[in-house]
Queue: 3 jobs
Job 1
Amino acid sequence: MADTNTQIRRWGLDHAQLRAELELIRAQYPDQDDFEAALERLYAELKAKEDFRKRTIEPPKWE
């Protein structure tokens, strides 16, 4: 089992990766008045956030 400091470091790296992914998404879909582009940007951001949650939540450890 990993100690607390290792888990915190891993979470920090995952969070930095999430921020980088969101910046790339925001650069790909700049602020526009187009509803379709805004909707695609929203879905891309939600998918990145959901992937982050799946990466950071550890499955239960069975003994």
Job 2
Amino acid sequence: MATEKEIDEVIKMLDEKTSDGVSRIGVHRVETEREDYVREVHHHGRCDIGSPFADGSVGNFCD
């Protein structure tokens, strides 16, 4: 279970991101990762990060 201090640290990190102009944030907690592991993924479009459209694996469709 997370401590109040850990929760406050996450809230502070998210507040800083939104203050910096980040408008979409996805937070995923993975039990198998190290406790200190943090990964940030940036995307300059409005597609969901990691979606086929965001990573370019969907080609353009012709009529």
Job 3
Amino acid sequence: MRFGSFYMTDAGKVIYQAWLTGAGVTLANDSVLYRWTVAGSNEVLAREGDSAPGTGSHYLAFQAFSVCSGGAMVLQSNLGNGKIALMRALLGAGPTAALQTGTTLTYNGATRSILTLGIHQTGAGVGGGGGGLGAAINDEGAIFTVLSIGASEYVTLVYRP
């Protein structure tokens, strides 16, 4: 097993990424996001190849994830159906679909489709997130994302639970 990014929450929980090895593990299912608690339990939040709840598809490849100090997490993942999704896991809960490409929104009075999206995955702005250095999700589960809507136009969105 190999370990990657990890985040420590204020409550002493750790959310981290690991890559599994061994029998039955392939590049299609090796990456896993875990939540570890002081009590010593490891909970699988998401694993490549598994169903992505609320999307009608499965996780294909994890692109990025971010965790706030309170423990809420947002995962940006490619899906097996060709879309990109933001999955939100609030403290003590598993991930659910928050937003995905192909979703429409109104911009300057016109209906536009989200072509791609992104989150800020690293860093923490302990002084309030100045300079764009805050987590992509806050304790309440509000996600800050940048969306591409075509014609070289990008918008930011705070997607609330």
